[in-house]
Structure formats: structure tokens, C-alpha cells
Design goal:
Pathway: Purine metabolism; IMP biosynthesis via de novo pathway; N(1)-(5-phospho-D-ribosyl)glycinamide from 5-phospho-alpha-D-ribose 1-diphosphate: step 1/2
Function: Catalyzes the formation of phosphoribosylamine from phosphoribosylpyrophosphate (PRPP) and glutamine.
Organism: Desulfofundulus luciae
Radius of gyration: 22 Å
Number of strands: 23
Helix content: 25-40%
Strand content: 15-25%
EC number: 2.4.2.14
Distance between the termini: 14 Å
Largest sheet: 7 strands, antiparallel
Shape: globular
Structural class: alpha+beta
Strand order of the largest sheet: 3-2-4-1-10-9-11
Keywords: 4Fe-4S, Glutamine amidotransferase, Glycosyltransferase, Iron, Iron-sulfur, Magnesium, Metal-binding, Purine biosynthesis, Transferase
């Protein structure tokens, strides 16, 4: 099972969010707290902040949302000039306190904190190799394997240790690393998961999974961290090293479809604009006759606006989202599961009754939520419901940091389109084509990982028995 909201949604689950700051003279713990707040959509299971003060690395982390984990006193005790933070949704390792990040440890070079977004595809092999030579593991995360490798290679310098680690690591990793004195950031050579760099007014640097976190703390976006790059920030300023030569770029395309916040700038693309163009492309591919275009909020909103703009069909908010139900809401009992969707989304009867409706969403994974939403619309007297999706069918699992279902649970992998349409009781079901999706990115169409749609994995993936979030349990 994934996050606490699995009962109402069948979306792919978020990965994690990382944040790092080097800013002597500023309240780095509080700025990290605000940065993590901006990245909360990327993970809701646990949160943590580690701070370096020149002599020590101090840590506070726990299960829960950012405002639940940190109280005023917690932040007051985290004094220093550099910090890293993490919000987690588990992709390798169960949801438990021992797996919360950042991980802080002592090794030959001193104290170190590490926070990781991504998923290693060769973690089972690396962990077995390390265990055979005496390494011990407290958690069941692939991030602890990275920690052990750094400790193993850290006999000379930390940068040398990271360079050696990058040779061993396969898969997706965007890292922020903290020493007692310095901040480092690392991105894998395929750049699967996002990571960007910014500057603070008056001095200092920030790295974060998304630019929305830079905006929140008042930082100026500078650039994305390059594939294979290592960034070191210390008292002398910023240094950049090419840790590994860039390989085939493979930015996760689902960041643009669903995961990222719409106001983020990511690897050269504004997420909101990309989503609107996906909706426009949907309208070009499927000219459905209807009276209204409505989104499934919030992830379908930008695409729905794009569909309405291109088709000329009026856009309306037909589903109202209850924004006060968080990820920790008490789950309904089994006999009230169908009520769960209504707790999150409620149709506006006056807008919908008697209308032919195009409902735009970003994806369809298991189909459970869509069928309930369509039933709700029909209860309101909607004449027709056409579901338009701003992504192709998800037919393969992700091994690079998204907790997609096993392939046998993916509805598009098991059923043909017409059978899915009947199961969810839609009058029409339309997926954006893979060609249409990639056309949105123009000349950079080949810079993305589309393995969940095509099965074309940029990095070799593990055998099924060695995959899955509980593979190291």
C-alpha cells in the first residue's frame, strides 16, 4: 500500500522532494521548512531537516506532513549556516520512521546528511555486495546504500567518494548532501528526477526539486542542475564538476503530466504551459461533440483549459474539490469507500444537469476513481460523459522513482480501450497519443523517459522479484 490517500485516488504516487540551502547569517532551518512546504505535493509520509553549523550536523525528522513534523521549538534548535530537507513518499522501503530522511551518519570524514529523490535499479546487487564485506543496514531504503558507498569510498575526499559512487549507481538519483560546513548537490547522468539551482538575495545558494520551492523562499532561479553534475557550495562560493558524462537525457515525462506543481519551471519548460498544450493536442486528436469541458481538479485543470481553448467548447468547473482534506484524513470504513471520492470531489449539479460533458484528467491507472466520478456525474443528470486523458495508456511499471502499480494492476495493460470504457461507464474514452504528447516538447521530444507508456527503459531494470518498494524489507 502507498500513502494514506490510496482509498480515494488511483493516481501514480509521488516520489520525494529535496531541498538544500547554504546561506550563512540566515535562518536556514526555517527557509528549508518553507521550501519543504512548497514541495509537500511530492511526498506526504515523512519530512526531515538536517542543519550544519560548522562542527555538527543536527537532525529532526518524523512521520507526517511538514507542519505536523516541525513545531516552533524544533526549528529554533536547528541553528547553522547550511541545511538540507526531504519530504518522502516511499518508492523503495516501507513507510516507517526508520526510512524517513535525511539520513545523517558519521564516517571517516566526519558527519554527513543525505536526502535522495529517485530510485536505484541495481540496489539489490549493491546492497548484497556491501553486506558481504561487512556493511550493516538499519533501513530498507536504497538511499542507505548510497550512504554506505560514500562511507566506503570516503578515505580521501568527499568529492572523490561521490565520483566513485556515481560509477556504481544505476538509475535515478537527485541528491542533496550536507557536511558540517558545506552543501553538495548531485544529479544522475540521465537526469531522471528534477533538480534546480537558485541564488538568494544578499548571498547564498538553494537547490530544490522544483523551482516553486525557490520562489517560496525568495530565491532567484539560476538554472537546472545538469545531468551528471556535482555542485559544491562552501565558504569560497559555488564549484561545479562533471561527475559523469551526460547520457541519453531521460527526464520523467510524468513530472509534466501530473507530479510537478503547475507553477514550476523544469528543465526549460513551464509545467502549466506544457499541460495546457497537452489539452490542446487532445482536442486536435479528438473532436468530441459536447456542451462543457470540465477538469478533474487540480491535475486535470490546465489540460482541460487547453482542450476548451482549442475546441471552442466552454470550460466550467463542474467538480468542486474539498481543499481541507489532507493526506492524513481518517479513511472511511470498507462499506463507505464509495463515499470517499465525494469527500474529495463533489459535482456542481446546476452546471452539469442535462449537459454532454468532456471530463479531462491527466491519467488512468486502475480506473477505480474515474468510474466513481462518472457515476457521480450521471447521478447529477449528465446526458453524456466523455473522459479525455492528457497522457497515453500507462502499461508498464516505473523503476526510476514513481510508485506505479505492478503491471497486472494497470488497467490499460490488462484491458483493451473499449473494455475499459465500458468498465468505467463512459460514453467515450480518449487517450492522448504518444506522438501527440511528445510533439508538445518540440525539438526536445527525445529528452524524456516514456517507459511507462512504451516499455523503452533508458537504464536496465531489475527482475520482478528484485523490484518493488518492499524489495529490501
Amino acid at each position: 500500500m502507498g500513502a494514506a490517500n490510496d482509498w480515494w485516488t488511483d493516481k501514480p504516487k509521488e516520489e520525494c522532494g529535496v531541498f538544500g540551502i547554504y546561506a550563512p547569517g540566515k535562518d536556514v532551518a526555517r527557509l528549508t521548512y518553507y521550501g519543504l512546504y512548497a514541495l509537500q505535493h511530492r511526498g506526504q509520509e515523512s519530512a526531515g531537516i538536517a542543519v550544519g553549523d560548522g562542527r555538527h550536523v543536527r537532525l529532526h525528522k518524523a512521520m507526517g506532513l511538514v507542519p505536523e513534523v516541525f513545531q516552533q521549538g524544533d526549528l529554533d534548535e536547528l541553528k547553522g549556516h547550511a541545511a538540507i530537507g526531504h519530504v518522502r513518499y516511499s518508492t523503495t522501503g516501507a513507510s516507517s520512521p526508520i526510512n524517513a530522511q535525511p539520513l545523517v551518519f558519521r564516517y571517516a570524514g566526519g558527519m554527513l546528511g543525505l536526502a535522495h529523490n529517485g530510485n536505484l535499479t541495481n540496489v539489490s546487487e549493491l546492497r548484497a555486495r556491501l553486506a558481504s564485506t561487512g556493511s550493516v543496514f538499519q533501513s530498507s531504503t536504497d538511499s542507505e546504500v548510497i550512504v554506505n558507498l560514500i562511507a566506503r569510498y570516503g578515505q580521501t575526499s568527499l568529492v572523490d567518494a561521490i565520483l566513485k559512487c556515481m560509477i556504481d549507481l544505476k538509475g535515478a538519483y537527485s541528491l542533496v548532501i550536507l557536511t558540517e560546513k558545506n552543501l553538495l548537490a548531485v544529479r544522475d547522468p540521465h537526469a531522471f528526477r528534477p533538480l534546480c539551482l537558485g541564488t538568494l538575495p544578499g548571498g547564498g545558494y538553494v537547490v530544490a526539486s522544483e523551482s516553486c520551492a525557490l520562489d517560496t523562499v525568495g530565491a532567484h532561479w539560476l538554472r537546472d542542475v545538469a545531468p551528471g553534475e556535482i555542485i559544491i557550495v562552501d565558504e569560497n562560493g559555488l564549484t561545479s564538476l562533471q561527475g559523469m558524462l551526460p547520457r541519453r537525457r531521460a527526464h520523467c515525462i510524468f513530472e509534466y503530466i501530473y507530479f510537478a506543481r503547475a507553477d514550476s519551471l523544469m528543465d526549460g519548460f513551464n509545467v502549466n504551459r506544457v499541460r495546457r498544450e497537452m489539452g490542446r493536442q487532445l482536442a486536435r486528436e479528438y473532436a468530441v461533440e459536447a456542451d462543457l469541458v470540465i477538469p478533474v481538479p487540480d491535475s486535470g485543470t490546465a489540460a482541460a483549459r487547453g482542450y476548451a481553448e482549442a475546441s471552442g467548447i466552454p470550460f466550467e468547473e463542474g467538480l468542486m474539490k474539498n481543499r481541507y482534506i489532507g493526506r492524513t484524513f481518517i479513511q472511511p470504513s470498507q462499506d463507505l469507500r464509495d463515499l470517499g471520492v465525494r469527500l474529495k470531489l463533489n459535482p456542481i449539479r446546476e452546471v452539469l444537469a442535462g449537459k454532454r460533458v468532456i471530463m479531462v484528467d491527466d491519467s488512468l491507472v486502475r480506473g477505480t476513481t474515474s468510474s466513481k466520478l462518472i457515476a457521480m456525474l450521471r447521478d447529477c443528470g449528465v446526458k453524456e460523459v466523455h473522459l479525455c486523458l492528457s497522457s497515453p495508456p500507462v502499461v508498464h511499471s516505473c523503476y526510476y522513482g514513481i510508485d506505479t502499480s505492478n503491471e497486472e494492476e494497470l488497467i490499460a495493460a490488462r484491458m483493451p480501450l473499449e473494455e475499459i470504457r465500458r468498465m468505467i461507464n463512459a460514453d467515450g474514452l480518449y487517450y492522448l497519443s504518444i506522438e501527440g504528447l511528445l510533439s508538445v516538447f518540440g525539438e526536445r521530444r527525445n529528452d524524456f523517459c516514456t517507459a511507462c507508456f512504451t516499455g523503452d527503459y533508458p537504464v536496465a531494470v531489475p527482475q520482478p522479484e528484485k523490484a518493488g518498494k518492499l524489495s529490501l524489507e
